[in-house]
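Before a colleague's protein record goes any further, I have to sign it off. What it holds is a sequence and that sequence's fold in token form. My question to you is simply how this chain folds and whether the tokens agree. Thanks in advance; the entry in question is below:
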Amino acid sequence: MKQDREFHSGFVAIVGKPNVGKSTLLNSLLGEKLSIVTPKAQTTRNRITGILTGENYQVIFLDTPGIFIPSYKLQKHMVQNAIKAASESDLIMVMTDVNETPEEFKRDVFDKIKAIKKKSILVINKIDKVKDKDKLLPLIEVYHKQFQFDDIVPVSALKNEGVQILLDTVIQLMPVDSAYYPEDEISDLPERFFVSEIIREKVFINTQQEIPYSTTVQTDEIKTRQDNKLYIRATIYVERDSQKGILIGNNGSMLKKIGQSARIEIEDWIGSSVYLDLWVSVKEDWRDKESYLREFGYQ
């Protein structure tokens, strides 16, 4: 069989319900952490661009917020961004997991994107949760009969099972085209964005109930000090004074905990020593006000 040496390049939107493993899959495909990941639903709010370049391909993956029924304006923009990314891509990678039934998948995800006429792959995630892998075959057959996907690939994004098969499938469905980005570039998003995301991840991990969903982070300043340590000032915004108090904690204990864990990860990501200066501020009901959503880059 003649080997395909043509260069394949294009955009792939990763869409699905919250918490099906979209960000974990992106990180697994790239071989490093780019999207933040927490056990909480709706962690991803923005479209995250991840660029993977090989000898004869460049795939630009778009990790998107989950598709669900929104309750306030921020969530509405999140869902709109996911559908917009799918409509602008060359290929849609639609994710479900072994716990979701085909009926739930159709109602919650497929019916919302079926009007988009693009090539598509169904990715069934979390197969590591299935002890008897033979049970996957009837499930795949049900999806094959009900939906017109170009291919169906079972994976475990967390355990990296089936991910290479998925990548090979994606590459073959990509258009023949030249690269869009330099081969050493992994994302087109700015450094400040990823710093803010790392801090927000630590807020999600360390706080409970409504606090993580009521917060957003802006990186205000990044500069190199005279001692060559990188100074980063960032502000965590909340919606209520009571939330501000919880986020700061007794004698600043919670903010210190968030800052310490964020600083360690930022240092590892940037590759230099960091002084992280965290502040907390209130912008009342920011999640439901268009002016604040524009200010925070959610539109």
